[in-house]
User: Which sequence fits this backbone?
């Protein structure tokens, strides 16, 4: 199975900050990387697919980059509604796997 | 806009079978691939598998011997069955729809619409 390692696991930030989350894959996954946001008690929400393509309706302060084994999710000008847990997911190989998550806290 | 409504018991006894249903509204179930994901309380996401209306399915090897995913096109419903459950199967279970990208491509394993989730507790 492909392992995805997210860092950091926890992140304290303030409104207006720029936040960067990293996802490293145990092997090359090309651009088959998705980012989700999850709030407590809710289902995950798809933010970015194909490593850098913003899902329809997602604010442009979210961006993704990377390819191969290293990927980044960046949130510019953090808003109160962005405090949540973020997961990466690889689609290159089965079984599909997720990173362990990054909780963004105030 | 597709909507997913999950249903099923929230409590299952050890060694018994967990069964959940996901009703699809807003589009035909035959148009897309459907995935089930689970999340143990306080933990991360685990891919269970996907299913297509033809019956084609792909399962996580860690669950393959115990899980069955089906599609009932007459009812526009998905179902998940997990046999011989233990406490380790306690989780929130989600059904989800594949991504239909604006360029017309579909991404089978990128999940754009999710059910509300069902917490299933395995306990006697």
Assistant:
């Amino acid at each position: 199975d492909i392992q995805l390692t997210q860092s950091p696991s926890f992140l304290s930030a303030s409104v207006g900050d720029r936040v960067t989350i990293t996802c490293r894959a145990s092997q090359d996954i090309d651009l088959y990387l998705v980012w989700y946001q999850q709030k407590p008690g809710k289902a995950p929400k798809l933010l970015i697919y194909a490593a850098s393509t913003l899902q329809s309706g997602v604010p442009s302060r979210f961006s993704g980059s990377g390819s191969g084994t290293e990927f980044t999710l960046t949130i510019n000008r953090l808003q109160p509604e962005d405090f949540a847990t973020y997961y990466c997911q690889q689609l290159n190989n089965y079984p599909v796997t997720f990173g362990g998550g990054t909780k963004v806290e105030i | 806009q597709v909507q997913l409504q999950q249903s099923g018991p929230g409590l299952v006894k050890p060694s018994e079978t967990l069964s959940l249903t996901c009703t699809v509204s807003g589009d035909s179930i035959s148009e897309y691939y459907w995935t089930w994901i689970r999340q143990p309380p306080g933990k991360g996401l685990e891919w269970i598998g996907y299913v297509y209306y033809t019956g084609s399915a792909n399962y996580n090897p860690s669950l393959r011997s115990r899980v069955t995913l089906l599609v009932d096109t007459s009812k526009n419903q998905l179902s998940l069955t997990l046999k011989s459950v233990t406490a380790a199967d306690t989780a929130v279970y989600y059904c989800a729809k594949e991504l239909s990208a604006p360029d017309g491509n579909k991404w089978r394993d990128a999940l754009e619409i999710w059910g509300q989730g069902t917490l299933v507790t395995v306990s006697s």
